[in-house]
Amino acid sequence: MPTHSHTQAVLDHYQRALTFCPQPAKIQERIAGLHWTLWDIPQAMEHYLQAHALNPQAQWHHWRLYFCLQRLAGRESPRLLEFCQRIVDLVKPNTHYDANRGFTPLLLSTAYRYLGKGDVATQGQAQRARTILHQSYRAILEPDYPELINHAWTERRNHPPNFLIIGVWKCGTTSLYHYLSQHPQILPTLAKELHYFTGVTHWQQGKTFADYLDYFPPIDNPNYQTGEATPGYIIQPNLAKYLRHWFPEIKIIILLRNPVKRAISNFYMRQSLSDPIFAQTLDGVTHIDLGKVDAIANQIYGDLETGVSWIQCLVKQPAIYPNDISLNLALHLAFSQYIRYLPQWFEQFPREQILVLRSEDLFQNTPATLQQIYNFLGLEHHPLPEYRNLNQRKYNAISPGLHQQLTQYFQPYNEKLEDYLGQKFNW
Asked: Where are the domains of the chain?
């Protein structure tokens, strides 16, 4: 693993490459990805914007910019409004609202919304944000739901979403949301993960009930449901209390996967999103230092207990630990200690409003698991022609020694989880 000086050397190399590279947008993307790896969000955003200026057809920049924007807002960055203005100046001319579904309208509307929270002269930006979302939803819904557009369209949605899928990462939330979105009575959001509350550390930190509702389909018909799936919500401190205040009747869905498999999958997902220079593997690792894992897990849990957002927890942890796989894996193991994060939800919501499912059941017996979810949501069963497991990633299996060590490590956490929920997971 590279040291900080090695990291700077790589950045310097990329900067020099910009002077002669025939595809400078690719280099800007690499620089942005490197800063993303290091959780230097302002610099990541700076270079993603430069990459997009060089290659405006690369729509995938938009989801990275959207995530960066939400993280900057959660950290109350002084550059937030500057970046928002640059986004609307740069992205808007290249956006076709009738053809886009996903992060482009979310990015633009969010930028306009933050700009609209300034002085009186900028208040019209909030309406522009709403217009962008409405144009996108109309384009998506009109082919399949013309009657809803004609008879149930509303300029301001005033009723809450019906459900939230709050976690956990790498537990099948992408597949589940994809399945639910195909139900004729479920209207999906522009993107599975809205991340509206990502980074929020205290009540009403620039967030409002009305703003959040604008991100959902503007349809007023009780026969149709909607919801989103942002996995990080499950560990967001105090979020259960806030959502209980806003949406006392909302249904909560939680997917839990074998904690060892979830942590390893999350580790490799993180590697795939990082600059290749930081690529790590668990090949050949037979054991790790669990004392180091506990130290970081306890620090993260302690920070969350005091109200520090999970994004801030990530930022506080070094992005890389030179030559220490134990520390590099610790963060992902910490987020597999489910019993630490579930209680806030059961303390705020009645048990009948929370559905906790094993990811293994979703993967291995999808129709029956979906039937359970439809019953929970009060919907009729809707069989699908196929059930593809989305967002899979291939990587080598960990060694038997490491698997045994981690399985034993999680055993007491799993037993407490089963006792707390009164259900068996058999991990």
From this structure: 158-426
Burial class, 272, CB count within 10 angstroms (exposed 0-12 / middle 13-18 / buried 19+): exposed
Residue at token pair 């009747």 = 249
Cβ atoms < 10 Å from Cβ of 145: 18
Structure-block tokens of residue 327 = 């520390």
Residue length of the chain: 427
Say if CB 211 and CB 156 are below 8 A apart. no
- For the stretch 108-130, pLDDT in tens is 999 998 888 755 445 678 889 99
Tell me whether the omega of the peptide bond preceding residue 168 falls within 30 degrees of 0, making it cis.
yes
Question: What pLDDT sits at residue 103?
Answer: 86
CB 192 within 8 Å of CB 231: no
User: pLDDT by residue (tens digit) across 403-426?
Assistant: 999 999 999 999 999 999 999 999
Residues paired with residue 229 on neighbouring β-strands, in sequence order? 165
φ, ψ for residue 208, nearest 5 deg: -135, 155
SS3 75: coil
CB environment 274-295: b (16+ within 10 A), e (fewer): bbebbebebeebeebebebbee
CATH code 3.40.50.300 for 158-426? yes
Distance of CA 332 to the CA centre of its chain: 15
Integer angstrom CA distances of residue 185 from 137, 226, 332, 395:
16, 8, 36, 37
- DSSP 8-state symbol, 153: B
Amino acid at position 220, single letter = D
Q: How far apart are the first and last CA of the chain?
A: 32
- Tokens at residue 193, please? 């993960």
Q: Tens of pLDDT along 246-288?
A: 999 999 999 999 999 999 999 998 887 776 777 789 999 999 9
- Share the mean pLDDT of the chain: 88
CA distance 210 to 160: 9
Spatial distance between the Cα atoms of 35 and 257, rounded to a whole number of angstroms: 30
pLDDT of residue 53: 92
* Closest C-alpha among 263, 420, 262 to residue 340: 420
CA–CA separation, 232 vs 211, rounded Å? 20
As given in the structure block, the two tokens for residue 177 are 């949301």
Q: Answer whether 171's CB lies under 8 Å from 255's CB.
A: yes
Residue 135 CB: number of other CB atoms within 10 A?
Answer: 17
- For residue 48 the two structure tokens come to 């993603």
Cα separation, 132 vs 218, in Å, equals: 12
